[in-house]
Amino acid sequence: MARRTQRQPSLAGRSRADKLAHARIAWMLPPIRLLALDIDGTLLDTRFQLPAANRDALVAAHARGIEIVLVTGRRFSFARPIAAQLPIDLTLVVNNGALIKSKEGNTFYRRLLPVSVAVQVLAGAAAWRHRALVLFDRTGAGEVLVENLDSAHEPVAGYFERNRDAILLVDTFEDHLTEDPIQVLYAGPLEEMRALARHLEGSDLADQISVALAEYPRRNFTLLDVLTAGCTKAAALAWWGRRRRIRREEIMAIGDNWNDREMLEFCGLAVVMANSDEELRHAGWPVTLSNDEAGVAAAIAKYILAT
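The structure corresponding to this sequence follows.
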């Protein structure tokens, strides 16, 4: 299929109904003070590149005094290179809300998974163990533990090679759980990971964990994070908003996947990408262009720069 041409966001050419809808939203909400946005499927295009239009729109929003927060399922060391491409101050909520860090790596907030719970998760989900990784808030070898390096079980193609400096191959996870990890991560086909989610949410551990899913149906691929109870993108963003004295009504969020849903529900203004799952696109939130059409830039132009 031919790659779609990236469209630049424009205020011209809107339908009258669209302009009226935008006016109603702008009238009902206080001014946006913080923009929270997902990375994969939102800020980045399908080639995992940062469109120039998105970068320029974020710089323009920041120049207007808008605080920028990247909110992602990625771990910090994997999100940091994206943040480095943006020539502005910003904050990162990583690991689906487990950590909040500055661009330089200073930690403001941590919600780790207790060792005892991680051990129970691994035991209770033994049938999926071959798809598990354990992630820690540290750098270098041992940031990511794996029990096998079979490329058939990589989170994404090439993951083991790209992350070789962070990965430690171990015989058993339990022998190396000497401190609380951030999460237990599983990666695999859509239905297999949905079955794991149902298994975990119906288990005795349900009240001790949070399960975050990022699904990619076209690739038949899902990332499933097991985090400590109450750990979500929304909870981390709420904490950060209180610290910064920014009300939820003053926060705008942009996302595309199931692990964004609670964040979208929390914020005063939620915008979903055109490449989102159909159910998210029909949840009643405004829909911007796709990630291959600089949808982030279009949303910023419409709801921040035009006000």
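The first strand starts at residue 34 and ends at 37.
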